Amino acid sequence: MTEPYDPSVEGAEMSFDRKMSYGDYLHLDEVLNAQKPLSGAHDELLFIIQHQTSELWMKLAIHEMRSASRALRADQLQPAFKMLTRVARIFDQLNSAWDVLRTMTPSEYNIMRPSLGQSSGFQSWQYRAIEYLAGNRNLAMLRPHEHRPETLGQLDSILSEPSIYDEAIALLQRNGFDVGDEPRADIRQTRVINPKVREAWRQIYADPQHYWPLYELAEKLVDFEDYFRRWRFNHVTTVERIIGFKRGTGGTGGVSYLRRMLEVELFPELWHVRSDL
């Protein structure tokens, strides 16, 4: 029988009196005690952890997107590419999480559903921040956050700055492309599709060797939106699998609302230009 291994013989720290431990650094007591099921249903812990971990990944996505915007503004394309790649991988991770939630059946969800009250994922302010950072600036979606001035202030701060797509278009302009009436007068509003921006991307895709950094930027943005769209689609199918076509807890149409969100394009000219190539 093999003797139990003692890591201390190789110098591993085993005593943490007055020293920082793994749990101390990550504040695991707070994190692991943040799950407060209300119904007593077995599956409620799954539901809570699914959404809490998603919010943590979204917090990182917001950090990376804001940093990428600043990098593009400063013409620091390589760091921006790294950050945008990370955001795409975050959404890949978020996509995988739906597979776990799909193990919940309608009957299991119905046991805990009354405990949710009017809470709903569409009220996630971090999800809204990601959309605003990307460029989908639906101001009507500020209303669910009006009861929390601090949250509303954070969203207003994001809306007061150009989106990541605004920064990409400004970069095109600095590189000599005619992008028409950009930036728009009110950056808080969602952009209108601009044929001149589409033409600029067409020129870049037509000669990638000449415009390689801008060509790579285009693909980084498309990659991010690709994973983002998949996340939305998986959200729809997961909700349909669990609640069918019933109205959502937050009062939306549920699946019908989520399907409408599938039609939203974050970087429309980058998708439409594919028809021109």
Count of helices?
12
Overall tally of domains: 1
Spatial separation of the terminal alpha carbons: 68 Å
The averaged pLDDT comes out at 93
- Percent in strands: under 5%
Task: Report the structural category.
Answer: mainly alpha
Structure description:
The chain is mainly α and about 280 residues long. The chain has a single domain, classed as Methane Monooxygenase Hydroxylase, Chain G, domain 1 (Up-down Bundle), CATH 1.20.58. Helices cover about 60% and strands about 0% of the residues. The chain is built from twelve helices and no strands. α3 packs parallel to α8. It is globular. The model has no long low-confidence stretch (mean pLDDT about 95).
